[in-house]
Amino acid sequence: MAELQTAVVEPTTRPEQDEKQSQSRPKRQPRYNVILWDDPDHSYDYVIMMLKELFGHPRQRGHQMAEEVDTTGRVICLTTTMEHAELKRDQIHAYGSDEGITRCKGSMSASIEPVPE
Predict the structure, then answer these.
(1) 47-94 confidence digits (pLDDT tens)
(2) In this structure, is residue 21 part of a structural domain?
(3) Strands (DSSP E) along the chain, which ranges?
């Protein structure tokens, strides 16, 4: 006669291992908002084109954001990691002047700020 064998299944981790694994998981990087600030020397078309080229926002979303920056004085363009936010802020500063407005002397202003937790 064949002998019956019983398999004992043990959990792959113990509770104390689960705790250690959760502690060793990488923390999520803090998030930062890229803020575009309003000024009277840039047109809606400029803002819409810049948001499309730098952030990939479609024209309709760019128009909504242009209206928001015009009415409230600021708009959040993107929420991301600090390094990416710094890059996008610098790209806004380097974008150049609005050729459609003769008094325009340069790019729009932007800043980054931490997202409250």
Answers:
(1) 999 999 999 999 999 999 999 999 999 999 999 999 999 999 999 999
(2) no
(3) 32-37, 74-80, 109-114
- In the chain, the largest separation of any two C-alpha atoms, in whole Å, equals 99
Closest CA to 84 of 107, 54, 62: 54
Number of structural domains, the chain? 1
Task: Give pLDDT tens digits for 19-59.
Answer: 665 567 788 889 999 999 999 899 999 999 999 999 999 99
Residue 99 to residues 30, 73, 85, 107: CA-CA distances in angstroms?
37, 22, 26, 11
CATH number of 82's domain: 3.30.1390
Q: Cβ distance 110 to 35 under 8 Å?
A: yes
Are 90 and 13 in contact, with CB atoms under 8 Å apart?
Answer: no
Please report whether residue 54 resides in a domain. Answer: yes
The confidence score (pLDDT) of residue 75 equals: 98
